[in-house]
Amino acid sequence: MKVHCVGVITRPESPDVEQLGREVVAWFQQRGIAALLNEVLPGMDLVIVLGGDGTLLYVAEKASAYQLPVLGVNLGHLGFLTEVAADEMYQAFETLLSDDPVRMEKRIMLSAAYVNGATGEKSDSIHALNEVVIVKKSTEAMIRLRCWVEKEYVTTYRADGLIMATPTGSTAYNLSAGGPVVHAELDAFLVTPICPFMLESRPVLLDSHNKITTQLLAPAGQVKVIVDGGLQWTITENDYLIVKKATYPLLLVSSPWKSYFNILRTKLNWGGSTVDIPLPEKVCKHC
What we know:
Blueprint: E1 5-10, H1 15-29, E2 34-37, E3 46-51, H2 53-66, E4 70-74, E5 84-85, H3 89-97, E6 104-107, E7 110-115, E8 126-128, E9 131-135, E10 143-149, E11 152-159, E12 161-165, H4 173-176, E13 188-194, E14 204-207, E15 212-216, E16 223-227, E17 230-235, E18 240-245, E19 250-253, H5 260-268, H6 281-284
Parallel strand pairs: 1-2, 1-3, 3-4, 4-5
Antiparallel strand pairs: 6-19, 7-8, 7-18, 9-12, 9-16, 10-11, 10-15, 12-13, 13-14, 15-18, 16-17
């Protein structure tokens, strides 16, 4: 991979991680590569995230807009997105700078905006790598959410909320709410109700070219719209939320040593083992 300029992003308000970031900047500069700390600028060749998945989510919108590849180094807990372990970091950097092929994944992102039901005015759009969530306040009764895919009416959910998740986000809030795991590179997204009143209200997997429109029905107070874990808006009855595929994906550099399913086994403890079992050669020749 040809690398001339790198941005190194550190977990906010973490002096130890910021010091590590300075060391990483110096490591690249010693090899004649320009490196900037906590900057994401057009024209960079690579963005390195030092932290957890939250830190990567923080830079995802800007990195996708500039189409900058992102490599995540996990200094947090789970690390679904930050695939490279801390003790693998410099080895991963050496691999990136070598002539060995680098696997780049295209992770779709969502674009969300809301429309004021009274005035018809539309907000600015914001992007999400994991999910856009409409959720009631904890002490309130269930809310009613009327839902369309394109212009086709789907249903009216009675639930605590609704999750619209990318395949990347399928292992986040969607999974906790009973939604399925979807392969991260699939060009689709999920609509998953949160604690629905009707148990037959199940998650729906949609082609990513569809646009989802959701209307909050009366009676309702203020309801939260959470984008990748952060409060973005509060909406009220008869307001609409419009969610669609963003123009640009996030380019995520894969770990050289771990496959997608290896990461799932490790993070979700599937089968109790992280060891890869190769398919026998006598079968491979038929694949």
